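Final report, closing paragraph on structural work. Over the funding period we assembled a curated collection of sequence-structure pairs, and we close with a single example.
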Amino acid sequence: MIVLAEAGFAEQTINKSRFLAMALPVADEREVSAALRAFAAKHASAHHLTYAYRLKLASAIVPRFSDAGEPSGTAGMPVLKLIEGRDLINVCVAVIRYYGGINLGTGGLARAYGGTAKLALDQANTHDFMEMKQYVLSLSYKQMDSMSSALLKCHGSIVSKSFGEQVDLVLNLPVHEAANFLNRFKPYAQ
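Its predicted structure, as stored:
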């Protein structure tokens, strides 16, 4: 599975219709909704805002799409097929159309929406998906430097920290690296 490291954007004009696409990394449906609202607000005079997204949840991979008033299967579905074909997860791709007065037909619409989405995805950097999990860790202050270095090497991150007699941390760690990382800082891992 692949995720986006950063967003991608594209624009093209086909038979006087202007298509704009954005491909964004997202973590959940709340982020999808916020991104779509922001994109729609920025292009309030556009005729159609179609989208597709694919999220990895704890129990399953959830795909969704919307044709946004275009003929069924001509807008959101080609975008979703592109996402699935690239094995992308935690991604939302939205395409806005400013209608140019010329009907494109169902095949033309599918090619236009899918093609613009492809251009946006091509602009975005990707990397392999790493499943992350949160862990609690308590450290002495003198262990913080070595822990920070180890955390950087395993692509983990600090979610929160509190300072008292020791440093209490909540860490996001790649699942495949967690056991080695936590064993290194025993007996403080919880």
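The domain at 2-128 is CATH 3.30.230.30 (Ribosomal Protein S5; domain 2). Strands lie at 2-4, 8-14, 17-25, 48-56, 61-66, 91-98, 126-128, 132-139, 157-163, 167-174. We thank the funder for supporting this effort.
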